Give the backbone structure.
Amino acid sequence: MRGRILIVDDNLRIQESLSQVLVPLGYETEAAVNITEALSVVETSSVDTALLDIRLGGQSGIECLRLLREHYPSIPVIMITGFGTIDNAVESMKLGAFDFVRKPLDFERLLRIIQNALQMRAVARGNGGSASGPSELVQEPIAISAGMREIFTRASRIAKTNLPVLILGENGTGKEMLADYLHLHSTRSGNTFLKINCAAFPESLLDNELFGHEKGSYTGADSSFPGIFERVDGGTLFLDEIGDMPPLIQAKILRVLQNNEIRRIGGKDMITVDVRFIAASNKNLTRMIENGQFREDLMFRLNAAVLHIPLLRERREDIPVLAKRFMEEINRSEKSDEKVLSDEIMRRFMGYQWPGNVRELKNAVRYACAMSQGDVVKIDDLPPILQMDADHSGGAASVELDPRSKAEASVIRDTLKQVANNKKRAAELLNMSRNTLYKKLALYGIDDPDG
């Protein structure tokens, strides 16, 4: 189990949709429709994070947040807000909410926020922000292609230094895995290794998490709090998606790199820290510097050693070996009869473009294994988009969708109805480009939102 999530919403349909998305990904869910039920669940179950609607019928989600923060302050609470409730969202952040998401829900963003909330929960419990040790891919990295062999050859040399490392690559290529590898093969491998996704934290919370605060530095700061820099002293800090780091935090990170010193929020004294930096980004940082979105001096400090991970479709030799490794891991974790991937699936994997890279491949193998009823995993067990022929762009409507896809398709239909089938407006409300929306409409076979 990846974590237990409490869903607090008086709309049973939303509860069900969220569960359909989360459970297949390995999460366990609990549900509540009001404040009383929410507090009862938290009191009797080990909840790792909560999704809380800002409106609970006749009750206030803000009041529920207040009570959760008062009695269970270690549980990160993610607020769900509708239109016209942005002021309440701001108020919830001041009361200590971890983050908030707007309706209609962007499931990809929500999942990123949940992952970071669970990481923060793990850090609070003192296990270094990671619920498990290094995966097999870190201990024995797969590098069949020439590009990946070169990456790991350079990484093994860089790991033994204290140089800051900048890892570049698209989402899902394996940036975090490479960061794990660097730490595991460094002289600091026996010390703390913490990870922070800069894209998922609001600026004020990221500042507090990194640098900590002194007692009385702001309302609610009832005691001193050592930030991540102090907790990772002597170890390694991984700053994922550093391109999304706010300018103020960029300046403070630069000072740490230059002087090895930090100052808590509200503090007067400088605190010396010894931290090895690994940063990663899926953005074009050079272009961001040109646009004034990223500090050039910070880039100079971070790019002492740069590792660029190629796309999965640019290293197809690695695909069969990765797929088999994921299959072996699943067989061991499930402790069930050993399953194998059919030759037809391997051919489909080799012909697919993998826009989600290694992460998409792993999820596809996990999904297919869960759907398979026999020892051999077949084409019919794959996610809908992978069941489509390589030369055929349609036909997805006739394919049975997985629970997450069903939930997303339902949200898209509801949004299109709301805006009278205006695709441009729907894309804006769904926080996606029109091209992405059109692809999803084709994938889910949505021509008429009422259909």
Observations:
- The domain at 313-382 is CATH 1.10.8.60 (Helicase, Ruva Protein; domain 3).
